[in-house]
Every structure is written in structure tokens, then in C-alpha cells.
Write a structure and sequence with these properties.
alpha+beta, globular, 981 residues, metal ion binding, two-stranded antiparallel ribbon, 21 strands
Length: 981
């Protein structure tokens, strides 16, 4: 379709290739065919939206007269083939044709340079490969982003092998290849980490090089797998030393037991201090700690939260199959008809070759990663102490390197915007908009350039189809950007990297490596391989002393790992579950694993200390106001961000609205903190009310529906807010959410009864409390009680019917639909514990015998199935303990041991193994549900006189002093709820 604009460039390239010395006719034809495909693809990606818009204009104007839609498409294609058509586009899109010709000409010139270099270096390439390459069969252009006038990495396919062409200096690759063997211990043999062999070259057009092709191969046996993961730890240690970054999945190839880093241009990345975020100095300090830790390498798992890669783990160690969010990509809908248009499709990321097995068992092999990192880090320190390290690293001083100041996705989205029909119609306004967005990005991203001249050069590069690039040499430090612009300060980056490496705390880095495993998994459903925590000698004597000692020991860790700021804020770095999956980060504001949950714990602990039921821990009392200050700062900064976005007319993705992660969680956190005496009632209500006002937009965008992240989780917090404030509008908002849940309910598939809710994470629906029908049903049942609305009661019954249909007597529990194989789960998040806890609450409200029976079933499943794996509230012993307490109270615990025996077993397990969380077993995580914080909370509640509310359901209970005076405000309306309030 683009022959009218691609054709002249193709014809010129054909003539030029015939004049390249040493290039055979066959090789020239192969190169021309590959280049032609590349030119068409590059052009189409730039102008497809314009052409489809013009297609619809032609159809509506009656200029397409064929009898059917396919015929009208053929007419359109014929129109586009005419050169004069493209000239007419300049009236509405003034820069289009000039820009398009520039992009295509840049790619043509880059293909010609490759051809000349290939012909000139051919003999050397065979030597590099170790055999004769044979005739050129094809080239895959665009194996990386386009930089500096259409230059891209290209993969050459020859008769007897493959070779990579890189239009940049490969000096850093060559030096790393020479230095690596000197950095590794003797134990690294016979399969040490390596980089591909390279050939450094230059000509009058600049430096370039060739890389030997690395073939992907799975490991042959368990021995090779163990070596691969130990080697991954070695790469972490090396890149930590060398300041490596941007080592994502596409930059590593698994060659049997050796992970080969195939692109190492981002060594000695400058450290850019975190800019004040407004979320508190402690949060900024925590972010800076992570930015200067082993996480910056990009090798460790972590979830993207930004536009275009939300929920994606791009890391070299992660990017696990089946554990990636889908990505929305543009596609042509109804292609081949006159109704063709740009749509979107949610697709998984393309497969990568960074894994050593088809189904990587990362959890099983992660100890080898940690051990490899620790082993090589220790060895490198010995080399440094002997004075052998610095001379080796000095070789890098003059090697050109790249510095990634903005994520490629930022440039990709801005590039798409600049080539949008509306931007091409008003190019000056679009360029100004792009520059403004880049300037605002610089306010948030450490190191991103804010200088106007640099930003204008970035925009210019994007307009010509390139991704802007910044380069330096480690000995110089100052950066060269697009168009020859300069930014950054002169600095010896080699010396700075070594200085920072020497100053690091190896134990901190090792904890980060251990914790980072969780980022490879998409949700809270993954657990480590079954490893029971045996208790060799539980003690029945003095259980309360054991309880107090274990709680105090964990609280001392909480104090020790706290990061405090000069503004008297506090936070922690830990594995955190949020709307995009797991990641290691400063704690967010939520209750599940965030600051709100830690504040609840600290308030509860101080209350129990005051009552004489818990040991005083030095520093714990001071952490409560500091943690509350962090929570307040986070909410104030978020509110300011929202106000700024509204003022600029920028759409902002709403927060999650769940009862444990999102707005709902923070509403009931403030009410619970009021109940615990940590904040006055007027402050709690002010915060909760401000959060509740954001719910309509959040609920309208919600796709989770569930208790944890979704709209169901905000129902009971809203009911409690209505009760505490006397404002009926919050109950009406809860009613609207109920109507929306009704609208999204789906009949169960064959073999199951009732209703289910389909989500992106669980497209077939799922049971259980946190994500499934039990949790949604519980919220609807509580809404039915509060409103006396039969439709909600009926909807709740349908949800419970679906859960009931999952109970399988042969399996002895409720089917876990996350697994394709028949299996059950017995945790709070998924399975018997959560189902039983919901039943315990509902039996006090309606149908007591029915729910008593469910409670009995759940207790029978949870002992011993739900204990002995870890200690958390979410998926471990101390969540199960709460279920057992309900069973004993309801006198349905006949299948359970005596209460004292269970307590002795749980306390003995803590004493013998330490507090073990589920996902990052050996890492301290203060979170209330997934971490050690919830273990302490449950230990406090174990005292028979403790009156701490449960956190196993998103219900803070009634307000301490009854409702405040009523204010009858109009409720906000939730789109799609079927109610206007």
C-alpha cells in the first residue's frame, strides 16, 4: 500500500547496492528484499491511523463507489498507490509527507551502511563465527529501537549461521568480555558467565560492530539448572559492581547453564538521587535506597506500574510464562473492508529466551541465585582488598556507554502521539504538548533531562521516528543527547560506581535479592514449594509468656528495619502486593501490606502494652506517629496530584477500590485507627470521607469486583462510614456498588451453580474470600442486612451457591479453580480459612445453622491442611488460628485439637523457625496480611482479654462513640451501577 512513498527509496537502494564493492548479487537481492519489508513496516506504523481516517472520510464523502465493502477497500488501496494522493495529504497534515520520507530515507541509508560494512568485513565475520557463514539469506532489521537517524540492531541470517550487527561502539562489550574471567572465582568453571564474542569496527560513518549469535538452549538436567541460577546470581554481583542497568529479559539469553548478557551498553549508569515526592522524606529515602541497590540492574523481578507496561515484569530473572499481564496493543479491526479502523487487543508479551526451562521453577531455584550473588560479592571484595579490582575496571573509562534517562515506553507513547492524525494536523501544538509532558516527566523521574533544548531535541528525534538516546564514556560522565545536546555533570563514573559499591551494606542487597522473587508472580496465589515447618517440641506451659516474647521479638525487627525521615515520617522496604502484582518497594498506603496496616499494628500493640498484655519495645511507640505522618503525607500528595491533573484536564487512572488494597482499605483503616485510639474521630472521618469521595470513579474503572482489590471490598467500609458519620450518602454509594456487581455477575459454567464474577486475573471466575465469590457474596449479604433489600440477599445467595458447588467431598474441600488439576486450598486468601471466617461472621446475622455447618467444614479442612507452611494471616498459620477460634466458639471444632495444643504448636513453630512469611520466606515484611505484622496482630488477639477487632474481614466495627450528627448530602453516582442515587 505504501509503494508510492517506499518505491523511490527502494529503487535508489537497489542501485546503490549494485555498486557496493564485494557484495554479491545474491546477497544484494536478499538484503534489498529484507530492507523493503522493513521500510514498508516502518512507514505503515507511522501513517496507518491517517490512512484509515482518510478511508472513512472517502467512504462518507461517497468517493468509494464499489458495490460491497471489500470492493470499496480495493478502491481505496488503488487510491493510496497513486503518488498524487500523498501530495493531497499535506493540506490537512502539513508535515506528514516530509517526515515520512525522512524516516524512510534514514532507514534506506542505514541499510546501505550495513551492506557496505557486511561486504567489507565478511571474511572477519566468518572468523568470528568460527566457520564460513555462507550466502546471506535474509536480515531482520529493527531487532532493537531505532536511534540516531534510523540505525537499528539487525540480525543476519546466513546459510551456515547467524550474526548480529550493532551500529554502535562495542568497546564496552569487548572490555567486559576480557575483564569477566578475572572477576570470577575458580569455582565458576566449567560454565562461567559470559558475553558474546564481538568484532569492533569503525569507518568514516562511525563505530559499529558484530556480535556472535547466541543460540537459546534449555538446560539438560537439574545440575545445569542449579548452575544457571547460581550464574544469574553471579551476574547480579557483577552488575552491582559495574553499575549495570536496563538488563531486561531481551538482553539475556539462556544458553544451557549460562545466562549470556547480549547487550551490556548500560554499564556505569550514573546514580540520580530521588527527587522529593511529597509522600514523606522516609518514603524518598526508601526509594533512594532501592534505586542504589541491586534492583537497579533490571535483572531482578519487578512489576511495571506505568502506561503501556502496567503489571508487566520485564526482568531477565523474571518475565515468567503465565505470570505476565496482558498488554493492550493497536490492531486493525475489519481489515480488508471500508470499515477498517484502529482498535486494540489485549495480548501477552512476546515470548523471551531468558529462561533455562519451559516452565521455570523460580521459587525452587532462587536460593541458588541468592547464594551465587553472595559468593561472588564476597570474592569481589577480596579482590578489592588485594588491590586487583580497580586496575581492571579502569579499562572501561573510555568505552562509550548508554544511559537510559527515560523508559522506552515513554518515548513510544509520545512518538505515537506525535504521529497521530490530530498531531499531524496541528504539529506545533502537538510538539509543545510533547515537550510539556517530557518536562513534567522530568519532575518525577530522577535524572530525566529538564533542559528545554534537550527536550526539544528529544521531540525532534521522535518526529523523525527515532527513540532519543543519551551516551557518555564512564571516565567523562557528562551525557551527549539527541542532536548533540549535553546534560549531566562531568564525573568519573567508574570511580563513583566502585565507591558506592564499597559503601553498600551487603546484607541489605542480599535481603533485596531474596525479596525480589515475589515480583515474578502476578498475584497472591503463588506459594513456595511445599515445605512444612515441623515443630519438634511444642510446650504447653506458660503459653502467654511465649506469646508475649514472640510478639516482642517481631516488633524489635519492625523497629530495626524502619526507615525514618527528618520530617518524622517512617516506612519500610518490603515485598508488596498492589494492583499490578508483587514488587519490592517502599510500602504503599494500603492496609494489606502497606503503611495503613502497620499503623493499625502499632496502635494495637501500644494499646496492649498499656493494658499490660504485651512487652514494651524500645522505639515502637515513636513509630506510630511517624507512620501516621507517612499515611497523611501520602494522601495529601495523592490529593494534590489529582487536583493538578484535573486543572490540566489530564485523565488519571483511578486507584483500586478494594477492601485491602485501594480506597476501601484506607477508609476502614482510618475508622479502625479511631477505634484503637490512635487518631481522633473527627480526623478519622475527614480522611475517610475524602477517600470515599474518590470511590465512584474508582468503582467505574474496576475490573476486579472482589474483596481484596475490587468494588465489593468497599461496601462494608462505606456502610461503617455511613454509620459513623450519620451521612446516608455513603450507604447509597454502597448500594450503587451492589447494583454494579449485579450487572457484572455471570452464570456459572457447566458443572457449577450460582453466579460468578469474571476478571482479567481469573477469567473463568474463582471461589474463596479475597478474590472470589465468597468475598463478594459476604459483602452483598452485609449490604442486604443494612438495606433490607431482597435483591442483594438473592445475589449473595447466588454467589454462595457458586462456592457451594465447588465443594468436593472426594477432595475434602473447596476446589481451587486457579489450578487446572483438581485441588483444594486452605488459606484466608484462597480456600477454607477465608470461607470459614466469612461463615463465622454471617452466622450471627442470618441462617445460623447453615453457616455453622460451613464453619465446621472449613475447620475440618484447615486442620491440618492450612497450617505448617508459613505463619502469615493471609496464607498461613495465624489466619487459620482465627478460623479455629471461631470453630471452638461455635462448638464445631470437634476435628481440631484442644485450643492449648494448637497455640503451643503455633508458638513452638515461631520459636523454632522464626516468623516465616509466605512469598519471601526469609525476608522481613511488616505487612498486616502477607507479612510479620499480621503475626504480631494475631498474637495480641490471642490474649483472652484482648478486644482488638479482627482484620480478616474489611469491617472496622461500629464507631467508638456512636454516630455523629447527620448530614444528608447527595451521593455521587457510579457509572454503570444502574442507580442515580
Amino acid at each position: 500500500m505504501l509503494d508510492a512513498v517506499v518505491g523511490p527509496a527502494r529503487s535508489r537502494l537497489a542501485v546503490e547496492l549494485r555498486s557496493v564493492p564485494g557484495l554479491s548479487t545474491a546477497d544484494g537481492e536478499s538484503l534489498l528484499a529484507s530492507a523493503t519489508l522493513s521500510l514498508r513496516d516502518v512507514g505503515w506504523r507511522r501513517v496507518s491511523r491517517v490512512l484509515l481516517l482518510e478511508l472513512h472520510a472517502a467512504r462518507l464523502a461517497g468517493r468509494l463507489t464499489a458495490a460491497d465493502e471489500a470492493g470499496r477497500w480495493a478502491e481505496w488501496v488503488e487510491t493510496v498507490h497513486r503518488p498524487d494522493f500523498w501530495e493531497t495529504l499535506t493540506e490537512h497534515y502539513p508535515p506528514l509527507l516530509t517526515r515520512l520520507r525522512t524516516v524512510i530515507d534514514h532507514r534506506r541509508a542505514a541499510a546501505l551502511r550495513l551492506a557496505r560494512r557486511f561486504a567489507r568485513d565478511r571474511a572477519m565475520l566468518s572468523a568470528l563465527a568460527g566457520h564460513e557463514l555462507g550466502a546471506l539469506q535474509g536480515i531482520r532489521f529493527g531487532a532493537g529501537d531505532s536511534h540516531c537517524g534510523g540505525e537499528t540492531v539487525a540480525a543476519l541470517h546466513c546459510e551456515s549461521g547467524k550474526m548480529l550487527y550493532k551500529p554502535r561502539s562495542l568497546a564496552v562489550d569487548a572490555v567486559l568480555g576480557r575483564v569477566l574471567p578475572a572477576l570470577l572465582p575458580a569455582s565458576a568453571a566449567p560454565h562461567p558467565i559470559r558475553v558474546p564474542r564481538v568484532l569492533e569496527r569503525s569507518d568514516r560513518d562511525g563505530t559499529y560492530g558484530w556480535c556472535d549469535y547466541v543460540a537459546h538452549r534449555y538446560c539438560a538436567d537439574q545440575g545445569e539448572l542449579a548452575t544457571f541460577y547460581r550464574n544469574l546470581g553471579h551476574w547480579l554481583a557483577v552488575m552491582r559492581l559495574l553499575g549495570g542497568s536496563d538488563l531486561h529479559a531481551e538482553n539475556v539469553i539462556a544458553a544451557g547453564p549460562v545466562p549470556v548478557v547480549v547487550d551490556c551498553e548500560t554499564l556505569f549508569t550514573p546514580h540520580f538521587p530521588t527527587r522529593p515526592s511529597g509522600y514523606g522524606a522516609a518514603t524518598d529515602l526508601a526509594a533512594d535506597l532501592l534505586n542504589d541497590s541491586v534492583m537497579r540492574t533490571g535483572l531482578l523481578p519487578g512489576r511495571g506500574g506505568g502506561l503501556g507496561f502496567r503489571g508487566i515484569d520485564p526482568s531477565a530473572a523474571g518475565a515468567l510464562p503465565g505470570q505476565q499481564a496482558t498488554v493492550s496493543v493497536p490492531v486493525i479491526v475489519d481489515e480488508g473492508t471500508d470499515r477498517a479502523r484502529v482498535g486494540s487487543a489485549d495480548l501477552p508479551p512476546p515470548p523471551t529466551v531468558n529462561h533455562p526451562s519451559p516452565e521455570p521453577e523460580l521459587g525452587r531455584h532462587w536460593p541458588q541465585v541468592v547464594a551465587g550473588f553472595a559468593e561472588l560479592t564476597e570474592h569481589l571484595h577480596r579482590l578489592d582488598q588485594r588491590g586487583e579490582l580497580a586496575p581492571r575496571l579502569a579499562e572501561f573509562a573510555d568505552c562509550p556507554t548508554r544511559v537510559v534517562l527515560r523508559d522506552t515506553i515513554v518515548y513510544s507513547e509520545l512518538g505515537r502521539m506525535l504521529w497521530h492524525p490530530s498531531s499531524l494536523h496541528r504539529p506545533d501544538r502537538a510538539a509543545e504538548r510533547a515537550a510539556d509532558l517530557l518536562a513534567r516527566h522530568a519532575d518525577r523521574r530522577p535524572g530525566a533531562p529538564s533542559d528545554r533544548a534537550v527536550i526539544e531535541a528529544e521531540v525532534a528525534a521522535l518526529q523523525e521516528g527515532d527513540v532519543p538516546i543519551f551516551t557518555t564514556t564512564p571516565g567523562r560522565g557528562e551525557l551527549t543527547g539527541p542532536g548533540g545536546t549535553r546534560c549531566g555533570e562531568p564525573l568519573d563514573l567508574v570511580d563513583d560506581a566502585v565507591r558506592r559499591w564499597r559503601a553498600l551494606d551487603p546484607a541489605t542487597d542480599q535481603r533485596v535479592v531474596q525479596a525480589a522473587l515475589v515480583g515474578a508472580y502476578l498475584n497472591d496465589g503463588w506459594l513456595p514449594p511445599p515445605q512444612r515447618l515441623p515443630v519438634t517440641g511444642p510446650r504447653l506451659d506458660d503459653l502467654d509468656r511465649q506469646r508475649r516474647e514472640q510478639a516482642a521479638a517481631i516488633m524489635r525487627d519492625l523497629v530495626a528495619y524502619a526507615i525514618t525521615g527528618p520530617d518524622e515520617t517512617a516506612t519500610w522496604v518490603a515485598p508488596v502486593l498492589n494492583a499490578t502484582g508483587w514488587s519490592v518497594q517502599p510500602l504503599p498506603a494500603d492496609l494489606y501490606g502497606g503503611v495503613a496496616g502497620v499503623a493499625v499494628l502499632l496502635a494495637a500493640y501500644q494499646r496492649e502494652v498499656a493494658a499490660g498484655r504485651a512487652e514494651e519495645v524500645a522505639g515502637a511507640a515513636e513509630l506510630l506517629p511517624a507512620t501516621l505522618a507517612t499515611l497523611r503525607a501520602a494522601e495529601a500528595a495523592h490529593a494534590a496530584d489529582l487536583a493538578d491533573a484535573r486543572e490540566r484536564g489530564v485523565a488519571v487512572r483511578p486507584e483500586a477500590c478494594g477492601g485491602y488494597i485501594g480506597l476501601g482499605s484506607r477508609i476502614w483503616s482510618w475508622l479502625l485507627l479511631w477505634q484503637l485510639g490512635a487518631v481522633p474521630g473527627d480526623q478519622a472521618l475527614a480522611h475517610a470521607t475524602a477517600l470515599a469521595a474518590e470511590l465512584p470513579a474508582a468503582v467505574a474503572a474496576d475490573e476486579s469486583h472482589d474483596l481484596l482489590l475490587g468494588a465489593a471490598g468497599s461496601i462494608v467500609p462505606l456502610l461503617r462510614l455511613a454509620e459513623a458519620s450519620g451521612e446516608a450518602r455513603w450507604q447509597e454509594t454502597a448500594v450503587q456498588i451492589g447494583h454494579r456487581l449485579a450487572a457484572h455477575a455471570e452464570p456459572a459454567n457447566e458443572g457449577h451453580g450460582g453466579l460468578r464474577w469474571l476478571t482479567p486475573l481469573f477469567p473463568a471466575g474463582v471461589g474463596g474470600l479475597s478474590h472470589g465469590s465468597t468475598g463478594i457474596g459476604w459483602a452483598l449479604a452485609r449490604l442486604a442486612v443494612a438495606t433490607a433489600e431482597p435483591s442483594f440477599a438473592g445475589l449473595a445467595e447466588e454467589a454462595f451457591d457458586f462456592e457451594s458447588s465447588l465443594y468436593d467431598p472426594a477432595l475434602g474441600g473447596w476446589r481451587d479453580l486457579r489450578s487446572p488439576e483438581p485441588t483444594t486450598a486452605a488459606a484466608w486468601c484462597h480456600g477454607a480459612v477465608g470461607i470459614g471466617i466469612a461463615a463465622a461472621d454471617l452466622r450471627h446475622r442470618a441462617q445460623p445453622e447453615r453457616w455453622r455447618e460451613v464453619l465446621a467444614q472449613a475447620a475440618a479442612v484447615a486442620w491440618p491442611g492450612g497450617v505448617g507452611w508459613n505463619h502469615t494471616l493471609c496464607h498461613g498459620d495465624f489466619g487459620a488460628w482465627e478460623l479455629f477460634e471461631h470453630a471452638w466458639a461455635a462448638k464445631v471444632g470437634s476435628t481440631l485439637p484442644a485450643r492449648e495444643e494448637v497455640l503451643a504448636a503455633l508458638l513452638g513453630s515461631l520459636a523454632e523457625h522464626g516468623a516465616v512469611s509466605g512469598l519471601a520466606r526469609d525476608v522481613f515484611a511488616p505487612g498486616l496480611l502477607p507479612g510479620q505484622g499480621g503475626i504480631v496482630y494475631q498474637l495480641l488477639r490471642m490474649h483472652p482479654e484482648a478486644e482488638l477487632p479482627s482484620v480478616s474481614l474489611p469491617d472496622p466495627g461500629p464507631p467508638p462513640a456512636g454516630p455523629l450528627p447527620s448530614r444528608q448530602d447527595d451521593p455521587a453516582t457510579i457509572p454503570g451501577s444502574g442507580s442515580t442515587g
